[in-house]
Amino acid sequence: MKKYFYYLMLLLPLTFVAVACDDDDDDRLPNVGIQATISGGVFEGDEIYVTQGDVLKIDALTLVNHTDKEAALGAVSYYWDHYLIGTNITQPFELNLDTSDQPVGRHLLQAQMPIYVVDYPICWGYIQYYVNIVEAQPEAPDDAPTSKVVTGMIKAKE
Fold it and tell me: Which residues have C-beta within 8 Å of that of residue 78, sequence separation ≥ 6?
């Protein structure tokens, strides 16, 4: 009998381990997306060409909510070549970037924002796009778009 008692005492901590490993839903992502309209240049593939001195615009930054819960975007931070250039805390979330002082070449434009959805952990939305500043606008086909709706990615907090 003593032998069974010791076996039970050895198995007792294992039951707590199994309970402690219960599946948490804290790393789940809500079914949401973000999109924005970028304009001010000519789009070719997944890049935009902007003549130096023109204004590049990000506007109509919106949350696409596919859940039945209420959701909202937090403050949007904008980055140019990985440097913070501004934060917009109120809607409409827009950016007007004057390219007069920007050097000719390829640059990275990014927007990052927290996304709040009821009953879900906070997640983050990211939009990034390559911008080519050129001295003179290259010859583009007549049907080349001058604005484009781009979608971003959603990630859990790391």
Answer: 58, 84, 85, 86, 87, 88, 95, 109, 110, 111
Mean pLDDT, 10 residues at a time, the chain of 158 residues: 60 54 60 92 88 90 92 94 92 88 94 94 93 80 79 82
d(CA 82, CA 102): 14
Contact 35, 62 (CB under 8 A): yes
Instruction: Give the DSSP letter string of 63-80.
Output: EEE-SSS-EEE--EEEEE
Verdict on whether the full-model pTM lies above 0.90: no
Give the HSE-up count for residue 98: Cα atoms under 13 Å, Cβ half-sphere. 2
